[in-house]
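**Sequence with structure:**
===
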Amino acid sequence: MQILDGGMSNALEDRGHDLSDALWSARLLRDAPGEIAAVHRAYYEAGATFATTASYQASVSGFGEAGVPRDEAERLIASSVAIARQVRDELAGDGVQRFVAASVGPYGAVLADGSEYRGRYGVSKAFLRDFHLPRLELLVAAGPDLLAVETIPDLEEAEALIELIDEIGFPAWVSYSVAGSLTRAEQPLADAFALAGRSTNVVAVGVNCCAPEDVQAAVELAAAVTGKPVVAYPNSGEGWDAGGRRWTGGSSDSAPLASGWSAAGAEYIGGCCRVGTEDIRTLARAITPA
């Protein structure tokens, strides 16, 4: 069983950072990399065995729109892995094996308009390949343990990313943003899992950035369709209001549900947006044998 970390953005906001611009947490790769390191350290110390890099919303084009030259943008994307690796290495020697997953968010995340929860961006598969490839190459070259291809809302983008993963030949998990038994683009989740399951380089398949109550059925389906280990890391239960750029609704605790996810085949369990260090500490205690 591997314990994933929680949300990077909420942890940085808890430390007093304003993430309201389009770069979101990726801005701090440039402005306050030590704060990103502090969040990785806090999650590791809370019991996470995986740190997920602050590259979810990072792209050469996105940094370019913020006035960052291309060579500096490339350095910042690679630095997301270097920061996490340094923290991991600083904690080595205590008998815990820790890992770094390089986050690869969907194209919609860079648009910063909530379209990662809708998909179907109106661009071609070739466009998506051209968008994702430079970031994938930069992240892989920086030396993570695997890629976290996450919050993917539809099959077309998943297909483009999985093709690139296989061409590069690097291990990855692929997790979808879902609503019930459908992707966010309203496609059958079974088809999405089957697509990822056919890849030899996809080592785990699952869901993230969804409601905790959607996880159990999705884990069971992913395990049945793919036969691969399953990854599951939902949000707190709150919903994202893209227009108001805020979280709404109440939160729920995933820890009581996590043993069911594990029994159904989830081998990588953690949290996504609005899930913090104490939530991960509680989750780790709930599913890690004493």
Remarks:
- The mean pLDDT is 92.
